[in-house]
Design brief:
heterodimer, A: alpha+beta, Ubiquitin-like (UB roll), 2 domains, five-stranded mixed β-sheet, globular, B: alpha+beta, Aldehyde Oxidoreductase, domain 3, Aldehyde Oxidoreductase, domain 4
């Protein structure tokens, strides 16, 4: 790579400012994985169908395989590593653990980030709305049922309730 | 101490996976690593006239470009590892890069290694390959026809194998009151685990050791095959499967690209990484299914099944994959009678070369295909004699008092209570009410249907003597080493290689219970040939059945040694010492005891061991199962068919499975859910399509329908428990039951919904277009 062909990007990733030289064509997903070593964001396809690479860009869930790193310049990115860590899990992470919302775990970071985005838009989704909201992700292991339960559980917890009592959790 | 086995212990794997600390093969980062990309054939069948790599090689950042000719004499060909007996199997050479001829779209032609992955990708475009295209054939029956393009000189008529099994069916069929005939197409599927395949290799010249991180379900099988292909002795070759993001059979095979990466790392003395993209996965990772079957079922007019005959044409693809030949033969042909009492049965299988991606195991592997045809045939038989499909099943399902049951192919079904599973499933639906509602809706032009699948399948294959007899070029035992450290903490080394199934949790449950210690004192080590001596991996729902049995046996051996040491400490004879809840004490005497930890430290200090007892506390077991296990159950699907669009919706789904004792109900439920959705994927959505030139037109997630969350209702699961006598835990396996059972349940339900239209059968996938056209055609004719 020739330095003349690169541009500088500045991003706040998981709360930390990062300044890097990148090729203009570099995908955000590759930037996160290969330049910053944040390998929690996975790449499961090349056509923006599977959602494994979903991250939050200025708080909005996006597929990082469809965003150029330069497009994220001067924006804030949250990856699964920034969602929560042991001892301080995000309610969505905790719910995926509690409700067996993952098996192989490869799609999981993207599915959780999608769920975070979904719950921001609709904090009390029905089970049907959760299934619709997960349309942009593919999981081959779980059959989705436990993912739906996990998102419902997270919604209930985030709503400040003691247990799962949101609409979906009753179904 | 409360027992963990049977309880929903939360998964120990999850902490790393939900926080982004999973370690998948593409996450492995080595200093100085280079990146590989593979140039793949755009043609299904062509002669390579020339390859010019000059421009690619000259690009800044390109380290080396390899072609098939560069590797001739340096790298062997990739063999198949399953050679069914008396099948006249053609072991055609599968070069890691094509030399003269490419035989499917995706066949490797060259490999670029570069400093940067984007440069490697750019360099592929600079390689100039001159092809002379040849006629291609993608359909196995067309490939067998006279005048079809020939793939391999050594396989005339493109026949890769021809295998027959069973007993004499002629007399029964000649005298049968009813013979039902049907042809089935079981479409080709793309496995699509969410993690693409990947390999990263590193050669250390100081020790002459090559390490390969690999997306594999069976690291030791990979080591064995790579060793042979590369000519590197096994003790200098280490295969590591870190976290593996699903396999579903597609990560069993040893692939050419994996060989290439390993070769290049040593050749360049530099770490090399390769990760397929999804497009490559579609074209260059093994596919599943792809059969035609011609089936005949004989029975009496009053509903007694008497025999089944199956003639099957299996598409093997362009080469024979690692386990490919075993799937449409051994794993299919021996169980086509399903869960039903039947005196005669036979299977004849042609495995055929075509200009398509090689096929191999895909979740269920052979058993879904067998289950699909028998479950469909039972419905067609019921329809023919005018009986309810439920009644035909009740009449012909094996009864609990008939086990062990030897089927017409000589398989000995271990144990079962098929009627109990059916009865339980029927408590979860209201069958009479559904039939009433169905009739009422039909009068209004609305179509709903119900479908049954009363399946049996086979798991935990073994003993190894049988593996040899059926041509599997490996053993089917499993290893376990249980190492108790001086402080009483336990590491378990297993030759199974779980990749999403949760055995780090379920194996720990077993060990913690058996030793009476906290689960946090147990660690499961797997997926590394340098840490685990030998093993055969995870596939065929064998991991808990065979791997769990090995662990349980090894733990028993640890306890027996500890008992002798404890007896010495307690000054009684070993026979008088009991071990309960992690404590040794003389029978009936509770105030004199030694804890497991106290005994362990004595085993290591070795200051005062009984005569003849060696220091340390560790045991291994190499468990060879006594026979197969046979999970079974009943699945019931309810569907609605939109009369205007042909769209099928699954409206209710009930699964009652019997996998023996359930070690972790949460994990088992997850396995069942995932399997069911995958099986419904075949029934309704998925299907690989090649055009006449051999181009895979369903080559991405945009063209190949993967099941999504909104396609499904809530799935209701339940269990009956019939232990298998063939392993100490009694488990039967559960990883594939959902996929095996659900496909016919849903197709039977759709056909039931369409029964008023006089449509006997539609081949999968039952897409809206296919269903709508069938309904239109009937209406047009009326």
């Amino acid at each position: 790579m020739n330095n003349q062909d690169t541009v500088q990007v500045t991003m706040t990733v998981n709360g930390r400012t990062r300044v890097e030289q990148v090729e203009p064509r570099l995908l955000l997903a590759h930037f996160l994985r290969d330049h910053l070593g944040l390998t929690g964001t996975h790449i499961g396809c090349d056509t923006s169908q599977c959602g494994a690479c979903t991250v939050l860009l200025d708080g909005q869930a996006v597929k990082s395989c469809t965003v150029l790193a330069v497009q994220a310049d001067h924006q804030a990115v949250t990856t699964v590593e920034g969602l929560g860590q042991r001892g301080g899990l995000h309610p969505v992470q905790q719910a995926f653990w509690d409700k067996h919302g993952l098996q192989c775990g490869f799609c999981t970071p993207g599915v959780m980030m999608t769920a975070v985005g979904l719950l921001q838009q609709n904090p009390t989704p029905t089970s049907e709305e959760i299934r619709e909201g997960l349309d942009g992700v593919i999981c081959r292991c779980t059959g989705y049922e436990t993912i739906v339960r996990a998102v419902a559980e997270a919604a209930a917890v985030m709503a400040g309730e003691a247990g799962p009592s949101a609409a979906a959790a009753n179904e | 101490m409360s027992k963990l086995v049977g309880t929903p212990v939360k998964r120990r794997e999850d902490a790393r996976l939900i926080t982004g600390h999973g370690n998948f093969t593409d996450d492995v980062r080595l200093p100085g690593q280079a990146y590989a990309e593979i140039l793949r054939s755009p043609h299904a069948h062509a002669r390579i006239l020339s390859i010019d790599t000059t421009a690619a090689q000259a690009m800044p950042g390109v380290v080396k470009v390899y072609t098939g000719q560069d590797l001739a004499g340096r790298v062997g060909t990739v063999p198949t590892a399953w050679i069914p007996p008396a099948s006249d199997l053609k072991q055609v050479p599968h070069a890691v890069l094509a030399v003269e001829t490419v035989r499917y779209v995706g066949d490797g032609v060259a490999m670029v290694v570069a400093d940067d992955p984007y440069i490697a990708r750019d360099a592929l475009d600079r390689i100039v390959v001159e092809y002379q295209t040849l006629p291609a054939v993608t359909d196995q029956r067309e490939a067998m026809a006279e005048g079809a393009p020939q793939l391999h000189a050594d396989a005339p008529g493109n026949v890769a194998l021809h295998w027959t099994v069973g007993n004499d069916t002629d007399e029964v069929f000649a005298q049968a009151e009813v013979v039902v005939r049907q042809e089935f197409r079981q479409q080709r599927l793309i496995p699509n685990p969410m993690e693409p395949r990947a390999a990263t290799a590193q050669y250390l010249s100081a020790t002459d050791e090559l390490t390969v991180w690999l997306t594999t379900q069976n690291p030791h099988i990979h080591r064995l095959l790579l060793s042979g292909i590369l000519g590197i002795p096994e003790h200098r070759l280490r295969v590591i499967a870190v976290d593996v993001g699903g396999g579903f059979g597609s990560k069993i095979a040893c692939y050419p690209d994996e060989v290439l990466v390993a070769y290049a790392a040593r050749d360049l003395n530099r770490p090399v990484k390769w990760t397929e993209d999804r497009r490559e996965h579609f074209m260059a990772t093994t596919h599943g299914r792809d059969h035609y079957e011609e089936v005949e079922l004989a029975g009496s007019r009053d509903g007694v099944l008497q025999g089944i005959r199956v003639k099957s044409y299996a598409n093997m693809g362009a080469y024979l994959s690692t386990a490919g030949p075993g799937v449409p033969t051994i794993l299919f042909g021996l169980i086509v009678n399903g869960a039903y009492r039947m005196p005669v049965a036979s299977s004849e299988v042609f495995g055929v070369f075509t200009n398509t991606t090689p096929t191999d195991a895909y979740r269920g592997a052979g058993r879904p295909e067998a289950t699909y045809i028998i479950e469909r045939m039972v419905d067609l038989f019921a329809q023919t004699i005018g009986q309810d499909p439920l009644e035909v099943r009740r009449r012909n399902l094996l009864r609990a008092d008939e086990f062990p049951y030897t089927n017409p192919f000589g398989l000995a079904y271990d144990s079962g209570n098929y009627h109990a599973a059916l009865d339980q499933a029927l408590t979860m639906v209201d069958y009479p009410a559904f039939r009433q509602e169905q009739a009422a809706l039909r009068a209004q032009g609305q179509y709903v249907g119900i479908g049954f699948s009363t399946y049996v399948e086979m798991c935990g294959l073994g003993p190894s003597q049988v593996a040899g007899a059926v041509g599997f070029q490996g053993g089917l035992w499993e290893s376990a080493t249980v190492r108790v450290h001086p402080s009483g903490k336990v590491q378990v080394f297993t030759g199974a290689s779980p990749h999403g199934q949760g055995e780090e949790t379920t194996f720990s449950q077993l060990v913690a219970d058996q030793l009476g210690i906290p689960i946090d004192d147990v660690d499961i080590v797997h997926g590394d040939t340098a840490r685990v001596a030998m093993g055969w991996g995870t596939y065929g729902s064998r991991t808990m059945v065979v791997g769990g049995a090995a662990i349980s046996t090894a733990v028993d051996r640890v306890i027996e040694k500890a008992r002798r040491i404890a007896a010495h400490m307690l000054e009684v004879s070993p026979e008088d010492v009991v071990f309960e809840d992690g404590v040794f004490h003389p029978e009936g005497v509770l105030d004199r005891q030694a804890t497991f930890a106290e005994v362990t430290i004595q085993a290591y200090l070795a200051w005062n061991l009984p005569q003849g007892v060696e220091p340390s506390l560790e045991a291994s077991a190499y468990y060879d199962p006594t026979n197969f296990t046979y999970p079974f159950g009943t699945h019931i699907a309810q569907v609605s068919v939109d009369a205007d669009t042909g769209e099928v919706r699954v409206t209710k789904y009930v699964a009652v499975d019997d996998c023996g004792p359930v070690v972790n109900p949460m994990i088992v439920e997850g396995q069942v859910h995932g399997g069911i959705v995958q099986g419904i994927g075949q029934a309704l959505y998925e299907g690989a399509v090649y055009d006449d030139d051999g181009q895979l037109v369903t080559g991405s997630f945009m063209d190949y329908t993967m099941p999504r969350a909104r396609f499904f209702p809530q799935i209701e699961t339940a269990h009956t428990v019939t232990p298998s006598p063939h392993n100490p835990i009694g488990v039967k396996g559960v990883g594939e039951t959902g996929t095996i059972a659900s496909t016919p349940a849903v197709v039977n339900a759709v056909m039931d919904a369409l029964s008023g239209f006089g449509i006997q059968h539609l081949d999968m996938p039952l897409t809206p277009e296919k269903v709508w056209r069938a309904m239109q055609q009937v209406q047009d004719e009326q």
